[in-house]
Design goal:
With 376 residues, this protein is an alpha/beta fold. The chain is 30% helix and 23% strand.
Length: 376
Amino acid sequence: MCPKFVPLPIPLTTKLPTLSQCCQLLAFNGPTSLSMVQAPPPAITRPGQVLVKVKAASVNPLDVMMSKGYGRKVLGNLRSVEGVIGGSDQTSTFPMVLGRDFSGEVVSVGRAVTSVRVGDSVWGATFPSTQGSHQEYCLADQGSLATKPDNLSHVEAASLPYAGLTAWAAITQAGCVNREVGQFSRVLVLGAGGGVGGIATQLLSRYYQCEVIAVAAGDAHPAVCAQGASIVLDYAHSDYQAQLASLPPLDLVLDCAGLGRAALHLARLLRPGGRVVSLSSPVLANTDQSGLLAGTVSSISSLVNMNCSTIPTGNMFTWAFFSPSSSALNVFNNLVKQDLLVPSVSSVYKFSNILDAYTEVEAGHSRGKVVLEMTD
């Protein structure tokens, strides 16, 4: 008689070091308040969490802004609520770990995690209210990560999730572009030479099959054309406004350039039912300045006032916000494998040189992502 087959149990964790490298923010005084320390790896406190050994993580403009206190009211309150739910004993704001996107290897999973297992290579991006990825080990909910594309290195993979998910949120939250009608849609992307704008251009042109008209600085035009834009305009050109005015009607204007309210004047370029979507919302800045209630009311009032001029034509001005999504990451995975979504990395720094990475991001105008490479 054949012996009964007994499957081996899937490991829920691997052996972890007592201490690991962690970059902590100790005050809201900018990147100079960052400090590299030895700290215990984060512990899983909820069944849906995953502990990742970070192989690479990017530095985003949001990290620089948060190091100066941006979003401290809203994100601080969310952090407190999450701490209570997760059973954390940390009641103070500091130390804080910045960093949103990452690529690495799963070393431990909560008992409700079904999408990945120990040993899997994953990529993802965490919500800004959580402790981030600028550490050797980071926690992420299973809904904010997915299996990493096999054809990307960890450095390349770490450059995509946050910018990609931000672009994805802007496109999907607009509600006026989808794959069924994409080939009949025309989109204007402002800031197409940046990280989010470049990925938005790729997604709109290659996944949604839209006609993309991009706006970028002159030196970024070759790269933006390669990302799928059919027309690229230079905002510094003397005829820029005339070029905009001569465009055929648009379905979507996507502001990845930080214009915010100033993008409203482009609503005149829309066909009926079109949208202007900006990734530069005043909500966090208003709540930082005026408090949660007053800042929220002020932001909503501003949005209503802006739409008073566009509603008669059936158009709308909206804000879009980054949102973690494992399903979107799986879409990106397939696009990467088909060379329809290509990462752009401008600089790579060792984790020990993280301050240099922040300095480059703070200076602005990078044509690709700035990535940290972790070392064993």
